[in-house]
Specification:
Oligomer: single chain
Bound molecules: flavin mononucleotide
Shape: globular
Number of domains: 1
Helix content: 10-25%
Number of strands: 12
Distance between the termini: 45 Å
Strand content: 35-45%
CATH class: Mainly Beta
Length: 178
Amino acid sequence: MLAPTSRTDAPLPPTWAPVSEHSLREALGQFATGVTVVTAIDPQGVPVGLTVSSFNSVSLSPPLVLWSLGRASRALAAFQACSHYAVNVLSAQQLPWAMQFAARDIDRFAGVDITTGLTGTPLIGGTLATFECANRSQYPEGDHIIFVGEVLACHSSSQAAPLLYHRGKLLDHAGLGT
Ligand SMILES: Cc1cc2nc3c(=O)[nH]c(=O)nc-3n(C[C@H](O)[C@H](O)[C@H](O)COP(=O)(O)O)c2cc1C
C-alpha cells in the first residue's frame, strides 16, 4: 500500500526564480476545463453551493473524484463538516448558473431547478452529469483544501454542449465568452 507523500525540500535549479501569481494564473488559464457547481447541506440544514472548475477524476475502482476549495471560502466550514456533497456538471445553456453560484451576497439557489438526491444533497436539474459523493478525505495544500469524494451515485443524461472555462472566461457552445 502506498502512503501519501509530501516533498517540500527538493533541490532548486540554479536559474530558479519565484513564480509570480500573475504568470501562474496566465499559464493555468490556458488549460480549458468544464464547469461544475458543488452543492451540500450545511450543519444548520441550509443548502450551500459554489461554482468549481477544479473538478477532476481520481480513480475508477474505488470510484473517486476530487475538487479544491479556497481556504477563504465562506462555504469552507460547511464542506468540511458535511457527510455528502454533489458535483453538478453544467451545460453551455447553464452559463447563468455558473455566474450565480460564484456571486456574493445573493441567494445562489434562487430560480434554480433543485431536486434532492439519494444522499439528501441538492441536485441541479438539466445538468450534463451529476456525481453524488461521500465526503471521503480532505488534504490542505497551500491556499486550498483538496476534497476527495467517493462517488455513490452518478447520472449522465444530456447530449447538450458543455460549459467551458478558458483564460478566465466562461464559454458557451457558440464560443461566446462572459
Ligand atoms: C468558472 C469559475 C470556477 C471556479 N472554480 C473554483 C474552484 O475550483 N474552487 C474554489 O474554491 N472556487 C472557485 N471559484 C470561485 C467560487 O465559485 C466562489 O466565487 C468563491 O469561492 C467565493 O464564494 P464563497 O465564499 O461562497 O466560496 C470559481 C469561480 C468561477 C466563476
